[in-house]
Amino acid sequence: MLVGILLIWFYRVTHHTVILVGGGGEEEEEEGMRWARIGLFMAELWFGFYWILTQSVRWNPIRRSTSKDKLAQRYGSDMPGVDIFVCTADPHAEPPSLVVSTVLSVMAYDYPPEKLNVYLSDDGGSILTFYALWEAARFAKHWLPFCRKYNVEPRSPAAYFSPLDASQDSCSGGNGDAAAKEWLSVKDLYEEMANRIDSAVTLGKIPEEVKAYHKGFSEWNFSISPKDHHPIVQIMIDGKDANAVDNTAVRLPTLVYMAREKRPQYHHNFKAGAMNALVRIPHKGVISGQQQPIILNVDCDMYSNNSESIKDALCFFLDEERGQNIGYVQYPQNYNNITQSDLYGNSLTVINEVELPGLDYWGGPLYIGTGCFHRREILCGRRYSRDYTEDWRRGAQRQAGESVEKLEERAKPLATCTYELNTQWGNEIGLKYGCAVEDVITGLLIQCRGWKSIYFNPPRKGFLGVAPTTMAQTLLQHKRWSEGTSKYFSPSTVPSCLVTERSGISLFPKVTSLWFIPFTYVMVGRHIYSLVEALRCGCTFNGWWNGQRMWMIRRITSYLYGSIDTVVKMLGLSKMAFAITTKVSDEDASKRYEQDVMEFGYSSPMLVIISTVALLNIVCLVGGLFRLVLGWGVAAWDAYLIQVILCGMIVAINMPIYDALFFRKDKGNIPPSVTFTSLAFVLLLCAIPLM
């Protein structure tokens, strides 16, 4: 492949010097033709550079395993405490019933409950989310002992009781009618809780009689909006209280609700700001009573799928020989709602199975914002030093006899808008501000301070989340991921046949030329290698094919928009924004997703780009074939075969787009306004060479 890429570059430089000097080639070329060649050459240069980068993570992938039995033998009851952070921001985009299922899954870890402290950050400051957490705190008294007794996996009740999860059919720790009766009892309790929460969200308010059961509801007696509210800290379960036990008299983990202060005149720095507020409150030992040395953060839709993930992560941190320089342990981002054909290319299978293990060899993976165990000190700005030794038993003990109310009042100043003013928070301390992908740049900063990271992908996935189920959700998510990172868009999706049809000049070597070989080899070899790699990682052929389509679509939409937004923000022409990917879709859209039918159903500039490129390719393919057969003759195939094949591949991969443009009648089709706009652009582009 490398030889083929180098030969392609050599061909461009030696056969089309007009690209570099603007003239002096074998034939005089029009201005438009020269720019077409320059664009194509730049795309080929970038493809080669990108291929070299991606090959570097395939040379020596690292696969890791742990020995949790040795961990327990060596440390026993002296294992460190863990603070767990769950972040949410909008009860309508991120349903509270989904959020609390994630919270319950991390509360139910197979780990001493007195060493667990779970914090939910609600950046929307919604009483609906608080109500859901209050319901979850009550349900936890039944759910946690049920999980322990029957060794339940996964420990998210939404996932466990889902019809799609086969594990619900049996309780591994028991048998007979008693186990079945208990299973049904807990299932009924969960469904009743979920129905109450969903009903409150639908109505937009909670039952008035509920407000008398917890003092925290009084926080919403004041005027509150998602972007303008006072700090709220409520301890739902105080793990230090001897009376905070489940229905089998076992201690419950600490559970805390936090909504940091937001005011219009202060920039709140999105998720990074929420995470930094979460880091501060436990760091001061206000609520948990001690500064737990390990932090786990998860997104609100990314539930724990493996109850022993904490022990797995600690095997790396507590390793006496190689654990001292480990800053964080990153689990892969997996989803539980991917269809068999991976319609929107969201499975990340090759990234998780090939590229992240490869990065582990080069010093560790990126921090991807969820499913990550951190050494607390790295989030507080500490640089790696060989002399540094972690005290896993350290901790500032809480003052005896302090009431919950006093603890909450002590914590609130740490969550105010003004706390970070004139400090290093967001710069040298905590997650870094100034970028929508705060996780990536924070991980890079940690590695620049000398710390290593670990990628761990156990046979049973550590975390599972909800993937986007519509085109709009997918493009929005990738646009956000691409802002500030090295994603790229590809100009090669603009058809070369458009130039050829109007100029009669080929952009590629003739079939009878020896230079045809490297172009063909690279084109075919790249796709065969990609297909084999995907199949080895567990993908299907349809999944790989859909992934190729989505790569093309994302390059000309999400990554293009993300790149433009990044440049504009760097120039100071606009402010950074953070768009939340909604975790809900209507019933009809969900059915179409399960049937592997792409969901459009909206008008947007991104959809116009997608439709225009698809239409332009099919127009050029038909026009080019017509002129080859009737105008230029069969002999012209020698010169234009590569361009016809490229254009034909893009047409083939865009078949669902044509279906949505002209044939589908459901609500998920492409709106007529987008179709007419795209057709107008195609006509304009086809007319340009005639002017």
TrEMBL record:
GO CC terms: Golgi membrane
Keywords assigned: Cell wall biogenesis/degradation, Glycosyltransferase, Golgi apparatus, Membrane, Signal, Transferase, Transmembrane, Transmembrane helix
Any GO BP annotation: cell wall organization
The keyword Cytoplasm appears for this protein: no
Main location: Golgi
Example of a GO MF term: cellulose synthase (UDP-forming) activity
Signal peptide region: 1-16
Compartments in which it is found: Golgi apparatus membrane
Annotated Mn(2+) binding sites: K271, D299
Ranges annotated as spanning the membrane: 600-628, 640-658, 670-690
Membrane-topology annotation of the record: Multi-pass membrane protein
Family per record: Belongs to the glycosyltransferase 2 family. Plant cellulose synthase-like E subfamily.
Physiological role: Thought to be a Golgi-localized beta-glycan synthase that polymerize the backbones of noncellulosic polysaccharides (hemicelluloses) of plant cell wall.
Full protein name: Cellulose synthase-like protein E6
Organism field: Ananas comosus var. bracteatus (red pineapple)
